[in-house]
Write a structure and sequence with these properties.
Elements lengths: L1 E5 L2 E3 L5 E8 L6 E8 L6 E7 L5 E3 L7 E6 L4 E6 L8 E9 L12 E2 L3 E5 L2
Parallel strand pairs: 2-11
Antiparallel strand pairs: 1-3, 3-8, 4-5, 4-9, 5-6, 7-8, 9-10, 9-11
Length: 123
C-alpha cells in the first residue's frame, strides 16, 4: 500500500488549504483513512478520519467546524479541506490507512503512512 500527500504550503491565518492523499495498492474498500499532524516537537496528533466505504467521518475537537474530510473512491483519493487556518495548525500533515471493518473511524493506531506534506500558517 502506498499513500502520497500533496497540497501543503504557506498560508496566512484565516486562509484555506486542501490537502490530498493519493492511495494505491488498495484491493478492498475496508479501510479507515486518518489525517494526522506533527507540529515542531514530539508527538503526532490525530486530526480527522474517514471510513472509505461509508464516508463516516470523525474530527478532533481542535478542528471541528473548520476542517472537512472527504473521499473519492473512484479515483482513490482522500481530501482534507482546511478552513479558517490558525498558526497552531502549522505542522507536517500525514495521511494513514488502517484495515478496519468497523463502522466508525478513530484517531488511534494506523498501520500504513505517507511521508507527509508541510503546512505553515503565519502572517
Amino acid at each position: 500500500l502506498r499513500l502520497v500527500e500533496s497540497g501543503g504550503g504557506s498560508v496566512q491565518p484565516g486562509g484555506s488549504l486542501t490537502l490530498s492523499c493519493k492511495m494505491s495498492g488498495f484491493t478492498t474498500p475496508y479501510y479507515h483513512i486518518g489525517w494526522f499532524r506533527q507540529a515542531p516537537g514530539p508527538g503526532r496528533d490525530g486530526v480527522s478520519c474517514i471510513v472509505l466505504e461509508s464516508g463516516q467521518t470523525n474530527y478532533a475537537d481542535a478542528v471541528k467546524g473548520r476542517f472537512i474530510v472527504s473521499r473519492d473512491n473512484v479515483n482513490n483519493m482522500v481530501y482534507l479541506q482546511m478552513n479558517s487556518l490558525k498558526p497552531e495548525d502549522t505542522g507536517i500533515y500525514y495521511c494513514a490507512a488502517q484495515y478496519d471493518l468497523g463502522k466508525y473511524c478513530g484517531l488511534g493506531e494506523y498501520r500504513f503512512w505517507g511521508r507527509g506534506t508541510q503546512v505553515f500558517v503565519s502572517s
